Amino acid sequence: MNRKTLVLPAVVGLLAPVLAACGGSDSGSGDGDAIVVGTTDRFSASKETPAPLDPAYAYDVGLWNVLRQTTQTLMAQPRGGGEPVPDAAQKCGFTDTGNERYACTLRDGLKFANGDPVTAEDVKYSIERAIAIDADTEVASLLNTVDTVETQGDREVIFHLKTADATFPYKLSTPVSGIVNPDQYPKDKLRDGWELDGSGPYTMKAEVKDDILTKAVFTKNPNYKGSAEVNNDKVEMVFFDDAEAMGDAIDKGDIDVMTRAMTPEQVQKLAKATDGDVSLVEVSGLEIRYLAFNTDAPEVKDTAVRKAVAQLINRSELVSTVYGSQAQPLYSMVPAGITGHSNSFFNKYGDPSVAKAKAMLEEADISTPVKLTLNYTTDHYGAATKQEFEQLQKQLNDSGLFDVDIKGTPWTKFRKAELNREYAVFGMGWFPDFPDADSFIAPFLDKNNTLNSPYENKEIINTLIPESRAEADRLSAVDVLTEIQDTTAKDVPLIPLWQGKQYVATRDDVTGAAYLLNASSTLQLWELGRGVSD
């Protein structure tokens, strides 16, 4: 196959995928003609996290990508991006001018995979359950504008909101809003283990070893009614220890598709190849990476320290050294391609400057070098994370103003320590809950934020976020969103670093890979099929 460009419908924030390195075909080693998808996402059940797949608990892009295959939501993000569309619902919409009353009608004859009918009461139960359980992942914060849920008959659900929330349709497309069967999910506690049930495109069977999920087998749900067209009967998702093992598997034909997270070297190799059995699909994405601060920690409590770090980081050097063309510098928590994006950190700090950073610290009477430890996770955001933090360490230490160590920790321990505020500075990544600026602001700056950050700005929380959500026309919210980003650059509870692209690699008898991931990194396994590409 010759290298080619695949043109998709024009959508804001989504570029046409680019295919490279196409050749002959082999099938994966799944059960029968199952399509086998590899990922380096790793999930474990433990005493601290006994219910990783409960929709009321899970708040991680990898876990959500398991849930989305089985647990149906009223709304769904469409294959090419854009406004959410009805899925379990036949129709949904605001019924008032103030965006505070949202009504949905379920599809007629909707059933769970086991044959039980899906009713409006089940929707009410599911939403109220997630809010009541209020898991420590803070995923329930996505539903914090819900006041009450009302049902009328078996198919009508009405959400009464505390305040206007134009983003609410998006929130109903996230797995925390997934519809669960009351017979399988207890009302006041999480469902432990690896069982997962719903009314989505697939049923799931988990294969587990030593409390670690090793494979998820998705089988087409004959009862599914929704917006997705399911192009296969079975998909197996295999969880690898690292990208190298995943790459070996696709080379051998043991898997058909390779998703997150490939190494920069793997992407470069596939992009340069002109023949072979594996194709590379590149999709513009909304993944971001950032540094976060525990603003109560003694090392960084003074804003001048955080500002000095922001003044010194050279994003262009960081990206070119570690990621090359696979990422771009980011100067706001809201990435490029999202309405409301503003380069607030560049506007505030300009180009990296040792002299300016030194003046900030001297004015605050802070002795140098400032000792800091930058913490990162070793096994959650890809193999290049360590190299990224080595580069950040070098930039800060070369200034002479900081004495920086770096420390890597496995995700399960890292996330717990971060939530317990054990780190002064730590690196995180973010995949949006939905493609709107609110999903890059509220999770970090609102009450009950996902970082458990002590930083609180009352104007952002009480005025600016509600004002932005009141604007159904998101262009009308740009001024408010810009003010939030400017305040973040001034107070520096977070420092955005870069925005990344997404990649999928497939053996060339697999179709649908161009739509496997949308701009929000939502995995859509139903798009995959078998066929002959040309």
SSE map:
Elements: E1 4-5, E2 18-20, E3 35-39, H1 61-67, E4 75-76, E5 85-86, E6 89-94, E7 101-106, H2 120-133, E8 146-152, E9 156-161, H3 168-171, E10 202-209, E11 212-220, E12 234-239, H4 243-252, E13 257-258, H5 264-272, E14 278-293, H6 303-312, H7 315-322, E15 327-329, H8 344-349, H9 354-363, E16 370-377, H10 385-398, E17 402-409, H11 411-419, E18 425-430, H12 442-445, H13 458-469, H14 478-491, E19 494-507, E20 510-511, E21 529-530
Parallel strand pairs: 3-12, 3-13, 16-17, 16-18
Antiparallel strand pairs: 1-2, 2-14, 4-5, 6-7, 7-9, 8-9, 10-11, 11-12, 13-19, 14-18, 14-19, 15-19, 20-21
Helix pairs in contact: 6-9, 7-10, 13-14
The radius of gyration over CA amounts to 23 Å
**Subunit arrangement of the protein:** single chain
Shape, please?
globular
User: Largest sheet at a glance?
Assistant: 13 strands, mixed
Subcellular location: Cell envelope
Protein name: ABC transporter substrate-binding protein
Family: Belongs to the bacterial solute-binding protein 5 family.
Main location: other
Structure description:
This protein has 534 residues and is of the alpha+beta class. It has helices spanning 61-67, 120-133, 168-171, 243-252, 264-272, 303-312, 315-322, 344-349, 354-363, 385-398, 411-419, 442-445, 458-469, 478-491, and strands at 4-5, 18-20, 35-39, 75-76, 85-86, 89-94, 101-106, 146-152, 156-161, 202-209, 212-220, 234-239, 257-258, 278-293, 327-329, 370-377, 402-409, 425-430, 494-507, 510-511, 529-530. The strands form 4 sheets. Strands 1, 2, 3, 10, 11, 12, 13, 14, 15, 16, 17, 18 and 19 form a 13-stranded mixed sheet that branches. The chain has a 4-stranded antiparallel sheet with strand order 6-7-9-8, covered by helices on one side. Helix 7 (315-322) packs antiparallel against helix 10 (385-398). The N and C termini lie close together (6 Å). The model is unreliable at 1-30 (pLDDT under 50). Belongs to the bacterial solute-binding protein 5 family. Keywords: Signal, Transport.
